[in-house]
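pasting input
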Amino acid sequence: MTVSTKFLSGLFAGIAAFGVATTALAVTISGAGATFPFPIYAKWANSYRSASGNALNYQSIGSGGGIAQIRAKTVTFGATDMPLTVAELTRYGLVQFPTVIGGDVPIVNIPGITAGQLVLDGPTLANIFLGKIGKWNDPAIKRLNPTVSLPDMAIAVVHRSDGSGTTFIFADYLSKVSPEWKERVGASTAVDWPTGIGAKGNEGVAGNVRQTRGAIGYVEYVYATQNKLAHTKMLNAAGKTIEPSLASFAAAANGAAWDASQGFASIITNQASPEAWPMAGATFILVYKQPTDPAMTAEALKFFQWAYKNGDQAAQDMHFVPLPDAVTQKIEASWTQVQGWKAN
Amino acid sequence: MVAGPLSLDAPPQFSSAIIRRAHRRDWMFHRVTQASALAVLAIFLGIMWSLLSGAWPAMAAFGFGFLWTESWNPVREVFGAAAPIYGTLVTSAIAMAIAVPVGIGIAIFLTELCPRQLRRPIGVAVELLAGIPSIIYGIWGLFILAPFLQQNVQPWAIDAFAGIPVLEDLFAGPPYGIGIFTAGLILAIMTLPFICAITRDVFETVPPVLKEAAYGLGATTWEVLWKVVLPYARGGVVGGIMLALGRTLGETMAVTFVIGNAHRISESLFAPGTTISAAIANEFTEALGDLYVSSLIELGLILFFVTFCVLAAAQYMLYRLEQRAGGARA
């Protein structure tokens, strides 16, 4: 009896020592949420692991899931494409900051129309998605594209069937340019679509647009480039015709306030800058001010600090826009409100 | 095991010990099987409880109006189940309208009319259809069937029915290719093997002597089928249809690929719609806000009841059929 007790306690001590030893060596940071930044988080995590030995376990379960998981405290950080409001952040005791910027691109499938050939403006896009413009040769579209020959073809609207930050950016832009859209539909990660067919995920929308003649949809920029879909140009708030590109997304980001007291919840659609693409948006991270495991949260923040410093090239390679240095400095300064974070 | 009960020198108390042990084993076996059965009941009640408690906020907010409200507005948090319920029932009805006659037809051909060499290859092909995962049907539906319908079938149907009341509304444009009708068609293809395989098995149980007697009396093949084979196999056929109906009501992946996922009730069968299971699968992970999640859980609860009611109605129909048949025989 005594022998076995001794043996067991020795075993436990050994396990405990082993556990302590491994934590000191390397940790696995856990996070969950938005699917849109998943490729760049995975890429950063891979490089960070070689640099620091610390691993990241990120589950891309969606923004809604990310918010639910951080509230349930099952993960160290949550990730969301739609920023929480200051009231929500205060209520849950969370700190919010952006990581990268991306943009939405309208994509079309019209026989004879190539990528970047068609130009749309906000009100026309809103009327198409409201179901008020039903044919591609509608005068409103013709007026914007006097040199393009548009077919007498029904417009098939394709939208997301799942909630998504992509939808939030799109619907938020339409709310800003169309009073009727704001009144009837509004902006959120999921909305009550007046017309069209729903498809799951960016790949679902891309697939349906490719399958359906006369279709128009919206996807993350990276999906439009990867799938070689015919994107449209947009007339922006300054009245200039703009191509979607990392430069025009960055121009949208530069015009924003990025106010730490607002949880950096800058919504950068329909920016005034003449170089800005009108449908850009940031993706956000959520951590607790008073985490249950401050050391682990500090490790998570260290990961993002590393990514701000070393991850810009990787982000651009994957068609994400890194944040300007002035913004990342403000973000790192805001982390002092997180218990356990020591700026270095 | 060591001393069998048949050994001659075994004293009487020894065999009673064996009997006691056997009794104990029986008792244990009884308890284990009983516990398994009760576990099913407990799981059922647990699911009911979690569905009810999860759906409670939505039930409190919308009441019974949830059932006939068409709006599904996550921005204003106004939710109603009318469109998904409608889509679930209509796609299942289309699937049954196609799969039941075709499935029974294939079964009749295989058991009564088919040349012996063809019987196995066709039978195996039908059974293989049942083994294809639903996501494959979904992908095939989206990439092959939907563009085909959009370019060939739907424009033709819209033109052909234009001007005919009712039909003109049921088959109205624009042709998206995907929608309620395509979902029903995919479901029909998916459930066809269930109906066909079960019906064929049941037809094969019809005693040859009955058929031979009917043929001997001068009945045609048609008469033998309608008056001998089908009445004899009625119960099994309805059973196969019920199984297929259960699959169509709950089918998720294949439907969500081709139905269009729009929370609207349209007169046209070519218009996009949604079903209960497709709505849950699409929206659950990204639902923001307690009322949104709760409304999706209430949809699950409704699917539970819809399935239960449809299957109960089918059971009742079967019972009535059997009663009538029994009465006619007596």
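fyi Residues 161 and 198 of chain A are 4 Å apart (CA to CA).
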